[in-house]
Design a protein that fits this description.
The chain contains four helices and eleven strands, in the order E-E-H-E-H-E-E-H-E-H-E-E-E-E-E. The strands form two sheets. Strands 1, 3, 4, 5, 6, 7, 9, 10 and 11 form a nine-stranded mixed sheet that branches. Strands 2-8 form a two-stranded antiparallel ribbon. The longest helix has 12 residues. The chain is globular, with a radius of gyration of 16 Å. It starts with a strand and ends in a 12-residue tail after the last strand.
Length: 195
């Protein structure tokens, strides 16, 4: 059964994008440095290949899609079904736009993404969507790429009480430190097992 996995690069001070996110700077000021590990070799390349191989579908927040993904075809994994969660309809979203637009809510988008992923995983893109999934108890794992960057401010994905994360496997050290966690007990949810 596919898992719902947040795959995210983060600064040492906890930001997934820099300050001043805008159309011409979708990762914010200095935010592109968070992803420099993706061009690396050795351990970084192995982690990148592992993430690419696990992608069976994606759930993407609308803001992330509009600013960061739509200009480049809609998904970092061509051919992988993408479900963009939104409540805003626009005429220009129709046609070949890189994603299926999910107007029926986050839980429905996750359900459809899991069906589309088959035996692979659903990767989550977007801080707001990731936070909502975590709060709903729908996030199974977090694959964290901790970049040696301090941004000072920006977009934080883990706001509030995160709950318990259970380490999975050994950290992988490359240009970034790659960490994997299973989401354990959540505040008010009592969840202790993967779904």
């Amino acid at each position: 059964m596919s898992k719902v996995v947040l795959d995210v690069s983060m600064s040492l001070d906890g930001f997934t994008a820099g300050p001043n996110v805008r159309a011409d700077e979708p990762m914010g000021d200095g935010g592109e440095r968070l992803h420099e590990w993706m061009a690396g070799e050795g351990p970084d390349a192995r982690v990148r290949d592992e993430v690419n191989a696990m992608a069976g579908a994606t759930v993407i927040g609308r803001h992330t899609f509009d600013l960061g993904l739509r200009p480049w075809g809609g998904t970092p994994w061509p051919g992988v079904p993408s479900f963009v969660v939104t409540h805003r309809t626009r005429e220009d979203l129709l046609g070949d736009n890189g994603g299926t637009f999910a107007f029926d809510g986050l839980e429905a988008a996750v359900r459809r993404a899991k069906e589309a992923a088959g035996d692979k995983d659903v990767l989550v893109l977007g801080a707001d969507v990731a936070g909502q999934l975590l709060a709903l108890g729908l996030l199974d794992e977090i694959y964290l790429h901790l970049s040696p960057v301090v941004l000072g401010q920006g977009t934080a994905v883990f706001a509030g009480n995160l709950g318990e994360l259970v380490p999975q496997g050994e950290p992988v050290a490359g240009t970034a430190t790659h960490l994997r966690y299973r989401v354990g007990r959540l505040p008010g949810k009592g969840r202790t097992e993967n779904r």
